[in-house]
Each structure stands twice: as structure tokens, then as C-alpha cells.
Design brief:
2 strands; 69% helix; two-stranded antiparallel sheet; mainly alpha; single chain
């Protein structure tokens, strides 16, 4: 199914760790853009839903395209949403993480996709163990990061952090 919540879970640890150097809005836009391909293939009646855009190299094209579009539209207002201005390193870094995390997660969920081994040479049995371990860490880290980030943003969370800083 296009755009599962699991894809968005990859944004929580990144946002918690990087703060203003990561854009959840841009991350979401890249996720949606990549999933246009399976939607179009479903509508056309194809058996294989994931193609070129769901490869590590193809997803970089989508990431660059969406990040460039975001930068061109920065400051524009759509309904109640204003596209925030981002530096190029933030835009490209966020888009890259969105694209590659999407491909990696899809490669574990969909039969027609296989993790591409152009970065590491991993034997097939070890690949499944690596995928299971990384997916488990993501599932554990995402809610912890989201709670931590929400607590830091709230006024009570900021006061609690200030108290911790004075008592240490």
C-alpha cells in the first residue's frame, strides 16, 4: 500500500537528532512522490508495482527533483501551508534520507523488490538478519524519538530540561 505509516517512522529519529536541520514536510513530499510510481502501475494494471523509482539510484532522481521543487516554491502559500525556506544542505539531506529509507523499507515489505547490494557485499542469509535487525531498531527508535521530540517542544518539556540542566 502506498505511503504506509512505517515510511514516516523513519523521519522521527532523524528529526529528533537533527532538529531544524531536517524537514518532516519535505520528507513527506519525497515519500509521496516516490509512491506515484506504484499508484500509476496499479492504475495501468501492471503486475510489478515497483520499478526504477524504487531503486536506490532512481530514488535519488526523485529526491533531487522534489528538493529542487521545494526550494523553488519556498515561501509560497498553499491553503494554510507555507512552504518553509530550507538551506540546500538541509533540503538535499532530508530528501536523500527520505528516498533511501523508502527504498530500504519497501525492499523488506514487497516481494518483487530486493535490497540492492551496491554499497556492501552481503551474503543472502546475512541480509535477512541485517534487515530484521535494522527494522527492529527503527520500530523501537521511532516512537522514543517522537515522544522525546514532542516533550522538548512542549513548554513543560522545556522547563523540565532547564531544571535538569541546573541540577546537573
Amino acid at each position: 500500500m502506498p505511503l504506509t505509516p512505517l515510511h514516516l517512522a523513519a523521519a522521527a529519529p532523524a528529526k529528533a537528532a537533527l532538529g531544524p536541520r531536517f524537514s518532516v514536510g519535505l520528507f513527506f513530499a519525497v515519500q509521496c512522490a516516490i509512491d506515484v510510481e506504484p499508484l500509476a502501475r496499479m492504475a495501468a494494471g501492471h503486475d510489478q508495482l515497483h520499478g526504477l523509482l524504487h531503486s536506490f539510484s532512481g530514488s535519488l532522481f526523485v529526491a533531487a527533483f522534489v528538493a529542487t521543487g521545494w526550494q523553488l516554491l519556498a515561501g509560497s502559500r498553499f491553503w494554510r501551508f507555507t512552504v518553509p525556506r530550507l538551506s540546500w544542505p538541509v533540503a538535499l539531506g532530508t530528501a536523500w534520507w527520505a528516498a533511501w529509507s523508502h527504498v530500504w523499507l519497501d525492499s523488506m515489505m514487497h516481494v518483487e523488490m530486493r535490497v540492492q547490494r551496491f554499497l556492501l557485499s552481503i551474503p543472502a542469509p546475512s541480509e535477512q538478519l541485517l534487515n530484521d535487525t535494522l527494522l527492529g531498531l527503527l520500530i523501537i527508535a521511532a516512537p522514543i524519538a517522537a515522544v522525546r521530540y514532542a516533550g522538548v517542544l512542549s513548554a513543560g518539556g522545556r522547563r523540565a530540561l532547564a531544571r535538569l540542566g541546573r541540577s546537573g
